[in-house]
């Protein structure tokens, strides 16, 4: 029996390397001229049983990319756990891309959509630059952005409402008698950093409390940065009685520093995080956190993308997921009510 076409014979026919053929047949980013050569050679040799080769005829790869800043961040993992089954049920495979929040890398991901290695993209950019907006406006495949983009950006958009989330947290701390609430934020030039900083100012104003620059420390959205930022804040303002942390990883770093300093949580310093990740319930003490609906945002983004793949003429849609405050021991002590009883819905405010 004659041997069917192989990667080697396709490479010989196309005049490219075996590695290049493998990349094309596995749907990985490759130069467009190489893709064209491999596609033509595969079709000539009858390699039509392969899923990628079939996609040459249908112009579909049945793959979708998910680009996020850090694949290890539990908020993104919560999104991923919802995105994948929605896409799988519709016959799509998921390709993961961890950008490290590097703008150039994110722009490259958008640019590579022209190579048609995926049928669509879900992305979570921490910064939205003019370059992002230009690439989104001219994207060669459907894109759904999780996070805030300017009004009129021609993509489907799923947002959190972290400004309202911060206000929920500060209202809760104020009710507990806390008046010197520090903010440990991520970079203010990021979408979440800007929104959470604005929410903090708005909440203080609504509560009749003054904004004090000495109570604000800027780091990054990682546990180690949380440790450094909280240590600096406590050194500068040892009288602080509560911490509003821009995500759960920063809050976990805060718990590390407070424990090492002999400061009791919540008796001496109450701590609130954001994202309500799995780590919040598992920490010691368990962490009060603002849920920004990471799982719901992921699921919604996947559903919007599938709709877009079926009908590319649908008007771009905006979905905002409301925040919930989940009260645990880090603010209310070990007698905190079950998290389901402590959820509080927010409304209004900016979304990011």
UniProtKB/TrEMBL annotation:
Name of the protein: LacI family transcriptional regulator
Keywords associated with the record: DNA-binding, Transcription, Transcription regulation
A molecular-function term among this protein's GO annotations: DNA-binding transcription factor activity
Pfam families: LacI, Peripla_BP_3
Coiled-coil blocks: none
Entry-linked InterPro entries: HTH_LacI (IPR000843), LacI/GalR-like_sensor (IPR046335), Lambda_DNA-bd_dom_sf (IPR010982), Peripla_BP_I (IPR028082)
Region (Disordered): 329-352
Organism: Nonomuraea muscovyensis
DNA-binding among keywords: yes
Keyword Nucleotide-binding in annotation: no
Domain annotation HTH lacI-type: ranges: 5-58
SMART domains referenced in this protein's UniProt entry, alphabetically: HTH_LACI
